[in-house]
């Protein structure tokens, strides 16, 4: 593991979830960091695309493709990809973290592995690859760097969909050389790959584990590619005599130049590997003088023996002599002289032939039919511009483009090509342009009434991108439950049956009912609203017979829209009951005045001297007529019995 305290990513929190701890490795397209998933409290490996590639839709699409490919696989020998996203300008993948080394590290340290080690690693690699092939996935970049050996003994393959991309700056670098060392002949010559291309790469890795080196070497990528296209891979026992004949046969079968002569997929080769392992365990090792060899067509191609499917035993020929052989000295000298002349002629002829072949090969691969060109970058262009770009690179463009789903690239815009950008193909090869038909529609989950964490998980698991979360107060839906789902363009998609892959989904979540503050004091009402993220402000006072003076009569929102956190409520405060105006009862009879005042909620007293005389009339009141007094106040009547 490598660290770099000056790396700006160290310590960064990605998407509010992944805390970057240290740097693990750096490649041509991305850097891998060790991070902590704060939500699930586990260590993960997070692959971050280099900043200068972040704006390239083709590379972003390959990031997404890696996540998709891994999501289709659930196998103990394949590295799990947990998450994929974009944080500001950072595109990232979150993967399973496996502390340990790569197969490349192991080969650099030990060079040659034992037969048992090779069997163990091959069984794991082929098991994971078989799961990929069963799911319709071709890895296309199998090499020791992509085989992970965990400290706990687990062996996994990774890097689906990314390692094929190489920028112009790394085209002749070591990374590309490492990749070319495992390219199948059909990838070199035609840019075509299927499951059998992966098998070829597996065969090269098996050779390297047993022989301690790669079968083909060269100072330039062209030299290595030329050997893959034209030469037969040798047997590993030619470098390491301890390799059993059965493993020689397996390597030759996997690396046959003709794809039809290889195992059709990883499952086929895995079955043979296990059968070979069982056979070696049951039988004693074959000697160097007599080894049983099952020769597939790849061995026959090399000319070692006549091609057939029968098991053949190769033994040294016995030298039978009936007696001493007498050779005439003069005849022997003449014979040797003749042989020297013949050998000189053939050496001259061989030099001429090799020179001719070198010239022909140079013409064939530089300007002739075998010349290779790299498919140029056309992602993000319109169809006409992409056609012009490919034609200028001496490639033919298929008459009709192929439409593919793409969650990032706009409809009608070029997504990529088939063969892919950066692949080497023969001049005048036909290239199909891939245009976007938008995101693939996926079933949309029911989110209304679901808790916020569960809804976010459903969005992610269903193939969409979780967006922002908004909150509204709603008296009919409990706190933390989803009210609505909002898609692109702020459209309500709660009841939508389908929605575009990886498109953003925002949630509107209930905060429950607005607190009931009627009857509370002004201070208590303001505190109750602030506790749920709302604001309260004192409004106008109002007389109210049912609410005590100083208590809140009502909380009125200032907006007619749905109530959201941060909204302000005007609090109407009671001023108690409204005052009563003492009516003009002067001159009225005592009982009529009493009835009128009591009807207004006042208590009535009157001069006891004239109390017994119901015919007494009112002369004045205390408080005076026209005064405003609180309801329930006492009013004294002054009476007289004479007019």
Characteristics of this structure?
6 domains, Phosphorylase Kinase, domain 1, Transferase(Phosphotransferase), domain 1, elongated, 31 strands, nucleotide-binding, 15 helices, six-stranded antiparallel sheet
CATH topology of the largest domain: Transferase(Phosphotransferase), domain 1
| Tally of individual helices | 15
Poorly predicted sequence stretches spanning 5 or more consecutive residues: 161-178, 284-337
Q: Count all strands and give the number.
A: 31
Overall geometry: elongated
Radius of gyration: 44 Å
How many angstroms separate the termini?
A: 116 Å
**Averaged pLDDT, please?**
82
Helix content: 25-40%
CATH architecture of the largest domain: Orthogonal Bundle
Kindly report the spatial arrangement of strands forming the biggest sheet. Answer: 1-2-3-4-6-5
Give the structural class: alpha+beta
What is the H level of CATH, i.e. the homologous superfamily of the largest domain? Transferase(Phosphotransferase) domain 1
Biggest sheet details: 6 strands, antiparallel
- Can you tell me the number of structural domains? 6
Strand content: 15-25%
Domain Protein kinase: 18-274
Transmembrane segments: 345-365
Pfam family, one: PASTA
Domain PASTA: 368-437, 508-575, 576-641
Structure in words:
Helix 3 (115-134) runs antiparallel to helix 6 (195-211) and helix 6 (195-211) packs antiparallel against helix 8. The chain has a six-stranded antiparallel sheet, covered by helices on one side. Strands 13, 14, 15 and 17 form a four-stranded mixed sheet that branches. Residues 161-178 and 284-337 have low confidence and may be disordered. It is elongated and about 155 Å long. The N and C termini lie far apart (116 Å). By secondary structure, it is an alpha+beta fold. The chain has six domains: 13-96, Phosphorylase Kinase, domain 1; 100-311, Transferase(Phosphotransferase), domain 1 (Orthogonal Bundle); 372-436, Trypsin Inhibitor V, Chain A, CATH 3.30.10; 441-510, Trypsin Inhibitor V, Chain A, CATH 3.30.10; 522-574, no CATH class; 580-640, Trypsin Inhibitor V, Chain A, CATH 3.30.10. Strand 5 and strand 6 form a beta hairpin. Helices cover 30% and strands 24% of the residues. It contains 15 helices and 31 strands. Residues 18-274 form the Protein kinase domain. Keywords: ATP-binding, Kinase, Membrane, Nucleotide-binding, Serine/threonine-protein kinase, Transferase, Transmembrane, Transmembrane helix. It comes from Marisediminicola antarctica.
């Amino acid at each position: 593991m490598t660290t770099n305290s000056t790396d700006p990513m160290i310590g960064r929190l990605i998407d509010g979830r992944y805390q970057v701890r240290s740097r693990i490795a750096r490649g041509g397209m991305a850097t891998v960091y060790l991070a902590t998933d704060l939500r699930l409290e586990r260590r993960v490996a997070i692959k971050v695309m280099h900043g200068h590639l972040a704006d390239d839709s083709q590379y972003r699409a390959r990031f997404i493709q890696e996540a998709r490919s891994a999501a289709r696989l659930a196998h103990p020998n394949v590295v799990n990809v947990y998450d994929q996203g974009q944080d500001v300008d950072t595109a990232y993948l979150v993967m399973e973290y496996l502390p340990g080394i790569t197969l490349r590290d192991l080969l650099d340290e030990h060079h040659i592995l034992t037969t048992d080690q090779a069997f163990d690693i091959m069984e794991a690699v082929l098991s994971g690859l078989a799961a990929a092939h069963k799911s319709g996935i071709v890895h296309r970049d199998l090499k020791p760097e992509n085989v992970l050996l965990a400290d706990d003994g687990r062996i996994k393959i990774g890097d689906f969909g990314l390692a094929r991309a190489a920028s112009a700056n790394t085209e002749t670098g070591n990374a590309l050389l490492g990749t070319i060392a495992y390219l199948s002949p059909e990838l070199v010559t035609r840019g075509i790959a299927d499951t059998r291309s992966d098998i070829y790469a597996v065969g090269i890795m098996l050779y390297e584990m047993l022989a301690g080196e790669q079968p083909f070497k060269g100072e330039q990528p062209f030299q290595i590619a030329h050997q893959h296209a034209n030469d037969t891979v040798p047997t590993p026992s030619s470098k390491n005599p301890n390799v059993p004949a059965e493993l020689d046969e397996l390597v030759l079968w996997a690396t046959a130049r003709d794809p039809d002569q290889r195992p059709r997929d990883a499952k086929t080769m895995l079955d043979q590997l296990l059968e070979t392992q069982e056979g070696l365990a049951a039988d004693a090792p074959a000697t160097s003088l007599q080894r049983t060899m099952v020769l597939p067509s790849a061995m026959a191609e090399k000319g070692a023996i006549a091609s057939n499917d029968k098991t053949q035993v190769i033994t040294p020929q016995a030298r039978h002599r009936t007696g001493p052989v007498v050779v005439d000295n003069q005849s022997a000298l003449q014979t040797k002289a003749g042989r020297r002349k013949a050998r000189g002629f053939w050496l001259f002829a061989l030099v001429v032939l090799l020179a001719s072949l070198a010239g022909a090969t140079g013409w064939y691969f530089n300007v002739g039919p075998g010349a290779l060109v790299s498919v140029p970058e056309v992602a993000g262009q319109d169809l006409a511009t992409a056609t012009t770009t490919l034609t200028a690179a001496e490639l033919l463009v298929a008459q009709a483009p192929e439409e593919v789903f793409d969650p990032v690239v706009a409809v009608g815009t070029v997504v990529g090509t088939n063969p892919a950008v950066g692949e080497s193909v023969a001049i005048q090869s036909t290239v199909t342009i891939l245009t976007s038909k938008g995101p693939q529609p996926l079933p949309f989950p029911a989110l209304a009434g679901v808790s916020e964490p569960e809804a976010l998980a459903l969005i992610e698991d269903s193939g969409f991108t979780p967006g922002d979360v908004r909150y509204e107060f709603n008296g009919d839906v409990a706190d933390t439950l989803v009210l609505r789902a909002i898609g692109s363009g702020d459209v309500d998609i709660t009841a939508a049956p389908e929605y575009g892959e990886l498109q953003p989904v925002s949630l509107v979540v209930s905060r429950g009912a607005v607190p009931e503050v009627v009857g509370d004091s002004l201070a208590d009402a303001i505190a109750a609203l602030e506790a749920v993220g709302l604001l309260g402000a004192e409004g106008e006072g109002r007389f109210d017979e049912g609410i005590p003076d100083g208590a809140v009569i009502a909380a009125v929102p200032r907006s007619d829209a749905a109530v959201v956190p941060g909204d302000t409520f005007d609090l109407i405060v009671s001023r108690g009951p409204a005052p009563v105006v003492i009516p003009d009862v002067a001159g009225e009879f005592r009982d009529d005045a009493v009835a009128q005042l009591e009807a207004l909620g006042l208590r009535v007293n009157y001069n006891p001297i004239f109390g017994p005389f119901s015919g007494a009339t009112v002369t004045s009141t205390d408080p005076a007529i026209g005064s405003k007094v609180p309801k329930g106040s006492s009013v004294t009547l002054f009476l007289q019995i004479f007019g």
